[in-house]
Amino acid sequence: MSTQQQDAGKAALFVLFMVTMIDMIGFGIIIPFLTYLVKDLAQEQGIVEIGLWVGLLMTSYSVAQFLFSPLWGSLSDRIGRRPVLMIGLLGNTVFFTAFGFSNTLMFALGARFLAGVFNGNIAVARAYIGDVSTPQQLATRMGLIGAAFGLGFTIGPFLGGEFSSPAERWDFFVGTVFENYPYLLPCVIASILSTGSLILAYYKLPESVDTERARPEDERSWSQRMSSMMSNSFSMLGKGSIGAMIWVTMLFTLGFTVMHAVFILYTEMNVDLGGLSFSEQDNGRVFAMIGLLGILTQGALIGPLTRRFGTRRLIPISIVITGIGLTLVPYTQASMAWIQLFAVVSCIAIGNGIFQPSSSTYLTRIARKEGYELGVVMGAQESLGAFARILGPLTGGIVWELSYRGEFPWDYHTSFHLCGALMVISALLTLRLPTLEEPSKTPQEAE
Q1: Based on the domain organization, do 170 and 255 belong to the same domain?
Q2: Which of 45, 213, 248, 419 could join 255 via S-S bond, C-beta 3.0 to 4.6 A?
Q3: Whether pTM exceeds 0.85
Q4: How many domains does one find in the chain?
């Protein structure tokens, strides 16, 4: 690698950090107000399946990312990383704002799907880092992507909650377009952030690929590549310890993402019906709290915990902690909502914050021990994880719609019980995971 390439990589890191963070802001910004938007539009259209539509809108984004990420990656090999990343930012700018102007559920669904299409470029950002980094730099620079994920998921819901329905909170917005479209302002803010990153990318992001010399290695059609990817991924599920770990991760992800659809369906429900009567702002603060606790866990706790318990033992522990939190969500009492919710979301955030790095570390070590190609294994985990992220919100929305009007335990508790059941199965599957010898301590650590 030349000095020029390394310098280009350093200059581009901030832009890549912003691209990834804005992708996650785009995912998280709708979480606090999505249920309220769906209820408003459904009431106007005479639609009663609120939970189903919340699930569809959450899922459509992940479906689009899943379908179009391979296309963006392939296109970036042909025309370069820089133009593909800029196309993604331009799409974000347009479709974030378009979603804020939704006046029918179908329009909202289309805008959300198209936002997911253009947010399928995180893989391109990772490829860019690979292009401009030495092997010694790679781990640290890839860690920036993880940090951008956590920060984006914290900022997104906070913005979505704090700036929803501005005309009800600030006289300045009364009589403006933001009164007619109460969820437009957070979407415009996301678009402005995306525009700022687009300008930064234009001036500060050099190309990392020599497109004249680069020859795409994969000349297959999209359908052939998708078929091969899914075939390879599902075949991994039967590969002994590797398959068991991927099953554990997939079920954990499924249980965790069911919560994305049903959490606010519960919190916004009237207190008389068992809910908390939360506003968009309340929900945004809850999800920001989850994001901050997740950042704290991965930034400060995971190292000491790993040294104390070992990666293998942390996996079932983290699953159980997360499952307890998810199951207890609907048992929150309105009179003590914030105290109890803090305890509940702490379990969810800390459990997830421990599970993510621990599961990736364990899978890497078991793949190397058993002689599998790491790229193939991680690709299978990512594609099956994406499948779980697609299925989770939709499943949560459907289960909520079928059960929330019933009587305990088949009522609004049911969706959260499902989260807990999936976590129990995931935890039980960890019994199939072999214990690996932990890496030996250096002499300095031993002292």
Answers
A1: no
A2: 419
A3: no
A4: 2
Q: Does 234 lie in the same domain as 197? A: no
The position carrying tokens 């000095």 is 3
Torsion sign, CA atoms 309, 312, 315, 321: negative
Structure tokens at 97: 């704002």
| Segments forming the whole domain that contains residue 327 | 228-434
DSSP 177: H
- CATH label of the domain that carries residue 27: 1.20.1250.20
Two structure tokens written together for 340? 């109890």
State both tokens at 383.
């594609």
Which DSSP letter does residue 241 get?
H
Question: End-to-end CA distance of the chain, in Å?
Answer: 38
In a domain, 215, yes or no: no
The owner of tokens 């992708």 is 23
CA dihedral for 191, 197, 203, 209, sign (positive or negative): negative
Which tens digit of pLDDT belongs to each residue from 151-178? 888 899 999 999 999 999 899 999 999 9
Q: Are 96 and 187 in contact (CB under 8 A)?
A: yes
* Angle in degrees, CA 343, 330, 296, rounded to 5: 30
